[in-house]
Fold this sequence. Notes:
Helix content: 55-70%
Shape: extended
CATH architecture: Orthogonal Bundle
Radius of gyration: 22 Å
Strand content: 5-15%
CATH topology: Arc Repressor Mutant, subunit A
Number of domains: 1
Largest sheet: 2 strands, antiparallel
Strand order of the largest sheet: 1-2
Oligomer: single chain
CATH class: Mainly Alpha
Amino acid sequence: MISKANKSPNRGQDRAAARSERAALAQRLHSACVRLLRRARRDDAAMGLPPGQASALSVLVFGGACTPTELARIEQVRAPTMTRMVDALERRGLVRREADAADRRRLRLSATPAGVRLLERGRERRVAVLGAALDGLTRAERATLAAALDLLEHLPSTET
């Protein structure tokens, strides 16, 4: 019979190896995502928005209306910074402020039709850039990528 003491060192080494493998995989995934995002964002200047404003508008267009506080939390900026961004987007007619239906003291931010069109065109440009990059892959490579995306899409979200 093998004692627990004899199993422990190997189990500890296995866990350490698994952590190391997971960390290396996470690093590769991070690097690949950053490179893909940079490639896709090359044409974002065509929107005529600074990256922070484009990101905030994207939250409203693709995520729906929210309060300024929620938007600041999502974008990981302080409230005064978000206020300046929203002011600029509102001046351009891309965002509107409205009283919350449930609590008239609270404001809700939403994208205007012009903001939606601007971001949809931006997304189309990004998707076209990524699609062109996929043209260089074989059918088998695209199938592997699709399987990997299925896994990625089912990872638990850290957003609240």
